[in-house]
Amino acid sequence: xxxxxxxxxxxxxxxxxxxxxxxxxxxxxxxxxxxxxxxxxxxxxxxxxxxxxxxxxxxxxxxxxxxxxxxxxxxxxxxxxxxxxxxxxxxxxxxxxxxxxxxxxxxxxxxxxxxxxxxxxxxxxxxxxxxxxxxxxxxxxxxxxxxxxxxxxxxxxxxxxxxxxxxxxxxxxxxxxxxxxxxxxxxxxxxxxxxxxxxxxxxxxxxxxxxxxxxxxxxxxxxxxxxxxxxxxxxxxxxxxxxxxxxxxxxxxxxxxxxxxxxxxxxxxxxxxxxxxxxxxxxxxxxxxxxxxxxxxxxxxxxxxxxxxxxxx
Length: 313
Hints:
Order of helices and strands: EEHEEEEEHEHEEEEHEEHEHEEHEEEHE
Structural class: alpha+beta
Strand order of the largest sheet: 6-7-13-11-12
Number of helices: 8
Shape: globular
Oligomer: single chain
Distance between the termini: 26 Å
């Protein structure tokens, strides 16, 4: 276990926004977890788990307590097509591992940022893929009680971009048991992965600091009839993995592309991204999120739900 004091969280998020953490605690093995729990039992400070930092907006006031970074970095083959993988493994490395061994299941995750633990927490998905489809079980530790628990797939309560771990952040994901969907040709897997990476580069503002899609897409069946008709008329319905109306489409239809507050801007390239033009503050982004939500509710009668995690002071 490593502990650092007064650490800038700005440098540990893809948004490049965030103040100082009182303490940054890095965990790399089971013994580190026990050591940290003993420390927590002594000081009882607030805890925030920060994985790859790619789906979070952190206050400029930082975090008063322990920011825990789970760097469990291992891939263990348990059986044919079954692997136990540390929560700290980067998704890009995991996709490469699968593809190079001709293991199907993660090729559509090409270009997905962050760690496996973060992906599981938010049930990350793209191009009809969701990480839940590969998960057999998740090992997690309750940072409050110290309990270690094995969550079977159904226990994880996966839903659209969410899970029991996102709704109950006291659970720290340690590792994940995944089952590859099958064996395929390595070249065909890499072809799909590269197509997904190229798609992101072409359509997402990756040249600016960002946290990915800010809002969840809207389930088609929940939208008002006039919004459904508009989306159908303009051929904007997608499967993600169920029929959805892209939030980027709604934001563009509301005329919000390019809207700025401070140094935060709704991307012209992909309107569901709020980018940091260089010096954006937490409040810049937070106020822009609020502005978008109010505008979309007024215009379309839809309440947008954030996909990113917002850590206020």
